[in-house]
Amino acid sequence: MSQEQDKIFFRNFSLVLAFIAVMMITFYLTADLITGKKEHHETNKREITSNSNITSGDLVNGKNLSQTCAVCHGADGNSANPIWPKLAGQHASYTVKQLKNFKNGERVNAQMSGMVAALSLQDMNDLGLYFENQKNNFGSAKSESIDIGQKIYRGGDSETGIAACMACHGPAGSGNPGAIYPSLSGQHTDYTAIQLKMFKTGERNNDTNSVMRSIAKRMTEAQIEAVSEYIQGLQPR
Questions:
Q1: What is the structure's pLDDT at 12?
Q2: Nearest-5° angle of CA 90, CA 91, CA 92?
Q3: Do 129 and 62 contact (CB within 8 A), yes or no?
Q4: Nearest Cα residue to 202 out of 214, 192, 190
Q5: Cα distance between residue 152 and residue 146, in whole Å
Q6: How far apart are CA 80 and CA 179, in angstroms?
Q7: What is the per-residue pLDDT across 41-56, written as a single tens digit (0 to 9) for each?
């Protein structure tokens, strides 16, 4: 091989090595970019998840959003129509769960499904906090329903396997926000009775571990009406 051929060979060989080096660097940078994007995406997911913390709610935004809710639930969450629930004073955790369930179809109501369709999780948190900070105007129970209603609420019915309502919702109906058991005190008789009847038939089924369905299906119509009336008269101590 002549000296000139040697030069050509080494020049071509150097070009091949340079090409391989460029390809390896390109591959490395591409892989690093993809990994970086994936890590950034995972970070965003964690941030989004952490933002579901209800304590991050914005009361001002919640109040603004509540203007649409006011048509049925009242400006301060105290609905005038007894078939629509009072939201004032309700635990934010419970309100958010219900809004999420309406949106994902776990709880079915054509009117509410339309109302929550455009809400983000942050909007739900904001609404939950706003209504939690409103004052429930409470109500009173009919005297003829107090005895039966109180018996069911506080002691249940051992003969038919009905558990006492206060076991989950508390003696004064204050509920348990950590367990997402709603506050019941002062809730409209009509609304509570409607929900118990829906649990009884299975029409409503977004209760955790079927707790409400298992209780309601054992209740008579008279017991449902009486305990619903009693709940309307409950007030926090």
A1: 53
A2: 110
A3: yes
A4: 214
A5: 10
A6: 28
A7: 333 332 323 344 566 7
Q: Are residues 150 and 199 in the same domain?
A: yes
CA distances from 230 to 149, 160, 181, 191 (A): 5, 20, 18, 13
Same domain (yes/no): 197, 213: yes
Rounded distance, CA 137 to CA 56, Å? Answer: 26
Q: Which of 45, 56, 139, 138 is nearest to 96 (CA)?
A: 56
CA quadruple 183, 184, 190, 194: dihedral, nearest 10? 70
Domain boundary among 19, 35, 50: 50
Where do we find the tokens 């299975």?
Answer: 202
Residue linked to tokens 């203007």? 67
The CA distance from 198 to 170, in Å, is 22
* Cβ atoms of 165 and 152 closer than 8 Å: yes
Q: Give percent of the chain above pLDDT 90.
A: 75
Question: What pTM was estimated for this model as a whole?
Answer: 0.77
Residues 79 and 102 in one domain: yes
Tokens of 147: 């005895």
Cβ contact 234:186 at 8 Å = yes
Q: What span, in angstroms and rounded, lies between the C-alpha atoms of 183 and 194?
A: 16
pLDDT at res. 9: 47
Domains: count for the chain: 3
